[in-house]
Amino acid sequence: MIKVFPTRCGAVVLDRDRLFEKLRGCMVDLDRECVLETIDKLLGMGVKATEIVLGPMSKAMEEIGRLYEEGEYFIAELIEAAEIFKEAMKKLEPLIREESRGLGGGRRLRIVIGTVKGDIHDIGKTLVAVMLQAAGHEVIDLGVDVDAEKFIEAVEKYKPDVLGMSALLTTTSRYMKRVIEELDRRGLRSRVKIVIGGAATTREYAERIGADGWASNAIEAVKLVNKLGGSGK
Ligand code: B12
Fold this sequence. Notes:
The protein is α/β, with parallel strands linked by helices.
């Protein structure tokens, strides 16, 4: 149910939007209790868990990153933010799985995914893995700090339809090119579609390094994988 209520200037504001803004703020302030409570309120209103994670929660993480860059936050705050995000995910993940059911379209695809060498950011990659799996695909998650050899071994062993790589650091995003070159050198490149993502990547970068696609978030990632794998939706 969506409630409306008057503001001081007489305009009306949607309850959902007000709570989204509150959640973003609590997350940026690293106020764990407020984050969890606000999520409960949003879920109680019938707001989808996927919207909560891909909306205010993800926006807050970007803002926290900016504060870090500007020297207002330090590594301790990034760690705290990641912990709060993961705690919230314990509550949200089962719901996201429910909501993602059926997003996979017709064909069940096999996807190998990992965060590239030198990079330990795993929140976004794991979210993509969860949604792909919930959409009906088989996902082999290689974890973080994955080197070219490990990606190649997985391509040879599992023969996936799609290989997904994640990078959040500018330095580590360069490694994606190395993995693609190595796959090419071993004659494996044409056997698998390659998709990339993560804050350090762009659509242009994906094109430049010869990947087959790029996605800005987990829902777009599922759509992209479906399309590349010929899975209908
Ligand atoms: C939390 C965080 C951390 C945590 C990570 C904890 C964890 N378990 O993941 C910790 C504290 C460990 C950390 C460490 C560091 N971090 Co950090 N971190 C962040 C922060 C604030 C949030 C990342 C996040 O979780 N976002 C939320 C998720 C949901 O979003 P996402 O990752 O973007 O994922 C979505 C999409 O990108 C896409 N996607 C992601 N992966 C994939 C893969 C595929 C295949 C597809 C299709 C799509 C896709 O879908 C996802 C879901 O919607 C970012 C800020 C930012 N702008 O991203 C900085 C940020 C990435 N970190 C940064 C830095 C500098 C570091 C450190 C080097 C700091 C230091 N001096 O030690 C270290 C590096 C450690 C390492 N070797 O990896 C910089 C990177 C700058 C740059 N351009 O290189 C950022 C951008 C902050 C900033 N603005 O300065 N960090």
